[in-house]
Amino acid sequence: MIRKAFVMQVDPGRLDEYRDRHRPIWPDLEEVLKSHGVHNYSIFLLPGTRQLFAYAEVEDEAQWRQIAQSDPCRRWWAYMRDIMPTNEDHSPVCEDLEEVFHLD
């Protein structure tokens, strides 16, 4: 299993909306994530900075990248773009984190 971690941001005043949109995520998006080998996906919030820390375990890097090409993922990005910083393709602005320590 490959551990992935990355950070994103929520726009000011949009934390409640961000939470609501994830309760729950769309069933077709959940299916895409699971069918592409994603497990133990969590997103945590640091309230004072509105910074999001995301963690997921993935079976394969290629499958992880393919998620971005799926219709549910593209629609989700478009749906979320009004409450968080996004790139031109509507994907969330995020920065991958480098793992420096792990304990099983």
Automatic annotation (TrEMBL):
Enzyme class: isomerase
Alphabetical GO biological process terms: rhamnose catabolic process
GO molecular function: L-rhamnose mutarotase activity
UniProt cross-references to Pfam families, sorted A to Z: rhaM (PF05336)
Keywords recorded for this protein, A-Z: Carbohydrate metabolism, Cytoplasm, Isomerase, Rhamnose metabolism
Enzyme Commission number, as recorded: 5.1.3.32
GO CC terms: cytoplasm
Transmembrane segments: none
InterPro entries: Dimeric_a/b-barrel, L-rhamnose_mutarotase, Rham/fucose_mutarotase
This protein's name: L-rhamnose mutarotase
Species annotation: Pirellulimonas nuda
